[in-house]
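Researcher: Re-running this chain for the archive, since the previous output was lost when a drive failed. Same request as before.
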Amino acid sequence: MGGRKDSTDADRFLQQKRGIWYYHRKVPKALRDIDDRPPLVRISLETRNIGEARPRRDAYEAADNQLWGAMLAGDDQVRARRLYEAAVRRAEALGFSYRSAADVADLPVDELLDRTETLASAGRTVAHQAALLGGETPPPLVLTEVYKIYADEISTGALRTKSDQQRRKWINIKKRGVDRFVEVVGDLDINRISREDALKFWRFWQKRIAPKEGRPTHSPSSGNRELGSLRTIYGEYFAHIGQMDRINPFAGLSFTEKAKRKKVRPPFPTEWIRDKILQPGSLDRLNDEARAIVLATIELGARPSEMCNLFASNIKLDAAVPHLAFEERDDPDDPRELKSAASIRVVPLVGVALEVFRRFPNGFPRYREREEALSQLVNKYLRNNGLTPTPSHTLYGLRHSMEDRMKDAGIGDDLRRIILGHRIDREEYGTGGSLEWRRAELQKVALLFDPAVFTGLPAAPASP
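Model: Regenerated structure tokens:
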């Protein structure tokens, strides 16, 4: 098997001779006058194991792709960057970290000998000399260009399981740090960003978080978020091109968050929920789906984002114990992550929540990927209609109310954490209790409601 070009072929560019695997690839015809290697590149991968040969092949393949891309590139900066990245990848394929020519000259004698001996055995081509002896200078590449590479290439793994909305939020946080650095320090060449440049940005935030005079204008978390974004982009970019040991100028720069004020989200008193929110007519001027989400949240304590993004597959009405399965979506065309691993859980439907999902068995499509719009609408409605005990109460307070009601009913800490999707701070044993048992526990806190609360909503299908 050799010279196969289909990128889906696991054994492309592999050939075995006397049990040893080789990287075996033709130089494109258009480049044979430029590439100083023979028309057929053949490099021993020094292994008889196909599992070891494939990743070594990948490294050579990536290096040649970069090299040939540079040879074909018309733009000088693009060509320089691809030549540099090709040298970095080829050094990695040969088992070395890429070093500049100046750094190679300062290497210990043993490592320098290793490089020259490897060069002799691999073939003294221009490409190999550049890789092992530092023949390519890192091209100028400003931070905004690095951000594009990070967003378009490097971050794809982290974004793979996120929904479109989650991707936008995640990327925008990173972009905010880059934009601010450019505004404060400048759009610098990534290879020349120094510790002093990073400290200048840190001092910019220090003046806003802990000014010598006047009151702070920003919280420590604001500065930490942007410094963290820059630290991540810088580190992952250089790891991407094979320089894992690059010193990160943003390392260790942060602000203490001990004085950070916890956002107050007070719970609704149980009596308030029963006598105000659950009264027939109190929610009637909300649209059907928003109204249903409020009612269901009373007995579920789920996050608004979780409620908005339920699909029919999450709603198990025909099970022996009707329940919701909060799960991540692994559909490659429509993925979505939950907040944490603990958020993946199964919650029995009781009380008013069970009645809601009998009427909305497919979830709430109007608010999929629009939880912020839902929260804004509901919070404004609750305030304007006298349905909040204080201006600080919001839809999220129903989640905290569920926690209080479960505590008051004597429901154990572990089950409370499971219901709300919180992490259990100890080694876990068993499954957390059967659905029948969970339902029996939740029925202890289910609130009585007047069926008239559903007036105007879709009717539940008749029981068979």
